[in-house]
TrEMBL record, chain A:
Keywords: Electron transport, Membrane, Respiratory chain, Transmembrane, Transmembrane helix, Transport. GO terms for biological process: aerobic respiration; electron transport coupled proton transport; respiratory electron transport chain. The chain crosses the membrane at residues 12-36, 56-75, 87-112, 124-144, 156-174, 186-211, 223-244, 250-271, 292-310, 330-348, 368-389, 409-433. GO terms for molecular function: cytochrome-c oxidase activity; heme binding. The keyword Hydrolase does not apply. This is Nitric-oxide reductase. Pfam families: COX1. GO terms for cellular component: membrane. Residues 1-443 form the Cytochrome oxidase subunit I profile domain. It comes from Oryzomonas japonica.
Automatic annotation (TrEMBL), chain B:
The keyword Iron applies. SUPFAM superfamilies: Cytochrome c. PROSITE patterns: CYTC. It comes from Oryzomonas japonica. Keywords: Electron transport, Heme, Iron, Metal-binding, Transport. This is C-type cytochrome. The keyword Heme applies. Gene3D superfamilies: Cytochrome c-like domain. Residues 43-125, 152-233 form the Cytochrome c domain. InterPro entries: Cyt_c-like_dom (IPR009056), Cyt_c-like_dom_sf (IPR036909), Cytochrome_c550/c551-like (IPR051811). GO terms for molecular function: electron transfer activity; heme binding; metal ion binding.
């Protein structure tokens, strides 16, 4: 580590990890609601809806903090300068964490905007915007003062500005439910299949370049092609959410065609990662970091690419829309594309920030493989429940709760898998917060 | 391929997709008014949307397929349980779901808000959204009804019972909803004629009935299902 201001990243990462644990615990409570009958008195005080708002907002919060921390770690190395204002970085971290805590406590008391995933109510919304603006200003000033522009930091900054702009689409109250969902997806879809992919592409390129020593020109060339394909398929691909909301029929065509192409950039990312590793110039000092990078690329492909493609065509989506199939896809895609990406950044940066060049990978491996296997199996059990639901409820016309009774077994299996997943997360978090230096070289 | 070509791939890819998307957004705005019947979007409907959001309904229920997957989709809820069915469930969830394995919270929603919610659901149910969800599609369920009744063991009445939402509340031999009474031996208490009357106007047969009148059934469907149930002895 060369730049002292990078240290702030460690705080972003540590808080993100803590929120990640809370998110998973909340997930276990949610799945318990599917398996057991929760008494009316408990439901009155702490309904499923409140817990779901917490589960999803914790996800968004920890991922945004991880992206921001990652940016504060990467930008000094890319610009070869200190962060413009470490104080602003501190201010922004505190502002966002306070906003998040107030929002989560507020949910418990029924203070909500009531829009799924965007439950944070208006006054707090503006705090998020202020936090994001301070962040962008700080990062922008660092780049501007250094006068050293790279494609990686351009993509990173572009993705973050795009992310912040899209958030605005979710703030107003829309009178028409159809228009409301139309712009809701500008936040949700264009985040995860647009802005966040830009951030991911930049971070992956940066880490691969550092890990493998492959020439910057080559890495950045492929980064352009990747993000070009992500944007081409992702922007118009938003249409796959407009099939059944009361929008014009041409969205069936636009959404179907563009989103069928969405796996392509992800596939390119997998090939690209493998290629860079094969043609590496530097010795890989921490092989486990490379394992996470490969795991991220492959899981991203399965969760977002394959699972997304599986129910994106209108003919299939007519039956699977709004069922547990979506839950299966959501869990695999978020974990594969974004949770693993952030864990990759953490494993790349956190030992370095503590002065450890080569870390002992024993706990890291145990945590990684536990999380990955548990999540893969959860994707399958949610998927089975989803296929049952699509067939029983949507094809056969069985009542909602009757169909759910056939899915209950699989939700029970998911609960058990969720406990294993939490175990993997706890091992990983402990390892990251107190990384151990390897006593001997691994090769 | 050079880096310059890669840059142009990025630029053209992004711009072409963005131009298409923004163009269609403008056109969607033009068409949504007609598709969603925006002329019927009264203040009461909007108040219902606000109530729907105030009580965070959307984090358990989906509407137009989006939201939580913990409870039934509400797009066609008026068609499925009727206006009175909605009022009863929102007002007394602890009674409505007393026997259900899943509960709905008692949120003390006011009478005015409940009426606005009903208006909102009525409006949403009329959106021209490509005949989704399939389980509430009149077109598709009548087809599955036909297919069921063609089977040698299933009477037309049984098919109506299975496809017209009766089983959302009632059960037969352990399959179906828990909201209404079990109908395994209903023929012992009511005749087919009484059942037909009950379906038309529940309160005329049983003043304490919570079941809403089933206006969605055709005369033939009502006749068949009553005959079927009357024979369950």
């Amino acid at each position: 580590m060369v730049y002292t201001s990078q240290k702030i990243a460690n705080w972003y990462f540590s808080i993100a990890l803590f929120l990640f644990v809370l998110q998973v615990i909340m997930g276990l409570w949610l799945i318990s609601n599917y398996v057991f009958t929760i008494p009316q008195e408990v439901v009155n005080v702490f309904p499923f809806a409140t817990a779901r708002a917490m589960h999803t907002n914790l996800l968004v919060l920890w991922m945004l903090l991880a992206f921001m921390g990652g940016t504060y770690f990467i930008v000094p190395m890319e610009t070869e300068s200190e962060i413009w204002s470490p104080n602003l970085a501190w201010f922004q971290l505190i502002a966002l964490v306070v906003t998040g805590v107030v929002a989560l406590v507020g949910f418990a008391f029924g203070w909500t905007k009531g829009r799924p995933l965007l439950e944070i109510p208006p006054p707090l919304n503006y705090m998020v915007v202020v936090g994001a603006l301070v962040f962008l200003f700080n990062v922008g000033m660092t780049m501007f003062k250094a006068r050293r522009w790279t494609v990686i930091q351009g993509t990173l900054l572009g993705g973050l500005v795009f992310l912040a702009l899209l958030y605005l689409a979710g703030i107003p109250f829309y009178r028409n439910e159809v228009i409301d969902w139309y712009y809701w997806w500008w936040v949700i879809h264009l985040w995860v299949e647009g802005a966040w992919e830009l951030v991911t592409g930049a971070i992956m390129a940066f880490i691969l370049m550092r890990l493998t020593g492959v020439d910057r020109q080559v890495v950045e060339k492929w980064l352009y092609v990747e993000i070009g394909l992500f944007m081409f398929t992702g922007i118009a691909g938003t249409g796959h959410h407009y099939y059944w909301i009361g929008a014009p029929k041409y969205w069936l065509w636009v959404g179907g065609i563009f989103s069928a192409l969405e796996p392509l950039p992800i596939l390119l990312m997998v090939i690209d990662t493998m290629n860079h590793v094969r043609h590496r110039h530097a010795q890989i000092v921490n092989p486990h970091t490379w394992t996470i990078a490969m795991g991220c690329a492959v899981f991203h492909m399965i969760g977002a690419g394959v699972w997304g493609f599986a129910h994106t065509l209108p003919q299939v989506n007519y039956y699977t829309h709004g069922s547990q199939v979506t839950v299966s896809h959501g869990h695999l895609a978020f974990f594969g594309a974004y949770a693993l990406l952030n864990l990759l950044v953490f494993y790349f940066a956190m030992p370095q920030l503590k002065g450890i060049e080569i870390y002992k990978p024993t706990r890291a491996k145990l945590g990684f493989w536990t999380m990955c296997s548990a999540m893969m199996l959860m994707g399958l059990t949610f998927g089975i429940a989803g296929v049952l639901q699509s067939y029983l409820e949507r094809v056969l016309g069985m009542g909602y709760m009757t169909a759910q009774s056939y899915m209950r077994l699989w939700m029970g299996v998911t609960l058990v898998l969720g406990v294993f997943f939490l175990g993997g997360v706890l091992i990983t978090v402990c390892d990251l917060l107190s990384p151990k230096a390897a006593t001997e070289r691994l090769d | 391929m050079t880096k310059k070509i890669a840059f142009w791939i990025f630029l053209l890819g992004t711009l072409s997709s963005a131009v298409l998307f923004l163009g269609l957004t403008v056109d969607t705005h033009r068409q949504v008014a007609a598709l969603s019947h925006a002329d019927k979007l009264s203040e009461n409907v909007v108040a219902g949307k606000r109530a729907f959001e105030k009580y965070n309904c959307n984090d358990c229920h989906t509407i137009l397929g989006f939201g939580g997957y913990y409870a039934p989709d509400l797009t066609k809820v008026v068609q499925r349980v009727g206006e009175d069915g909605i009022r009863y469930r929102v007002k007394h969830p602890e009674l409505a779901f007393a026997n259900s394995v899943r509960k709905m919270p008692q949120q003390h929603v006011s009478e005015v808000e409940i009426e606005s919610l009903v208006a909102f659901f009525n409006w949403v149910g009329e959106i021209d959204n490509g005949d989704w969800p399939p389980q509430d599609s009149k077109k598709r369920l009548s087809r599955s009804e036909q297919r069921l009744s063609l089977g040698a063991t299933v009477s037309p009445g049984a098919a109506v019972f299975q496809t017209k939402g009766c089983m959302n509340c009632h059960s037969l031999h352990g399959v179906g909803g828990t909201f209404g009474p079990v109908l395994d031996t209903i023929g012992r208490t009511l005749t087919s004629e009484q059942i037909e009357q009950y379906i038309l106007n529940p309160k005329s047969v049983n003043p304490n009935a919570k079941m809403p009148p089933q206006n969605g059934l055709s005369d033939r469907e009502r006749d068949e299902v009553a005959k079927f149930l009357g024979n369950l002895k």
